[in-house]
Amino acid sequence: MQQAGSSASETEVTWEDQQNINKFGRLNNRLHEVEDEIKIAKETNESLEDAGNELILTDEDTVRFQIGEVFAHVPKEEVESRIEEMTEKTSKNLVKLEEEKESIVAQMAALKKILYGKFKDSINLEED
C-alpha cells in the first residue's frame, strides 16, 4: 500500500521527457555561448568605434593599421573604409546573435512550461 502511494507522487520519466530535458540542457549551453559571443561582439564594436573616432582626430595621411600580427602603413581613407566594413560586419553579426538568443530563450520557456507542468517541484531548470 505504501509503495502505491509513493509511486503516485513520483512522475515517471518517459523517453520524450528525457529528450525534452536533454534539449533544454543543449539550449542552455548554447545560450551561454551566444551570450559570450554577444559580449565579445559588443566589445569589438566599441573598439572599432573608438578607432574610428581616433582616426577622425588624426592629421596624418597614412596610419598604422594592424593586419594579422603586423602593422602596415595604410592610407587614412582606406583605413576608414575598412573600419566601416568591420563595424558593419560586426553589427550584423550582433543582430544575428541577438535573434538567436531570443529564439533560444523562447524555446527554453516552452520546454520549461512542458517540464514544470509534468514534474512540478521535482525538476529544477533554473540557474543558481
From TrEMBL:
CDD domains: Prefoldin_4. Keywords: Chaperone, Coiled coil. SUPFAM superfamilies: Prefoldin. InterPro entries: PFD_beta-like, PFDN4. Residues 24-51, 80-114 form a coiled coil. Pfam families: Prefoldin_2 (PF01920). GO terms for cellular component: cytoplasm; prefoldin complex. One of its GO terms (biological process) is protein folding. It comes from the Eukaryota. Belongs to the prefoldin subunit beta family. Binds specifically to cytosolic chaperonin (c-CPN) and transfers target proteins to it. Binds to nascent polypeptide chain and promotes folding in an environment in which there are many competing pathways for nonnative proteins. Heterohexamer of two PFD-alpha type and four PFD-beta type subunits. This is Prefoldin subunit 4. It comes from Salvia divinorum. The gene is PFD4.
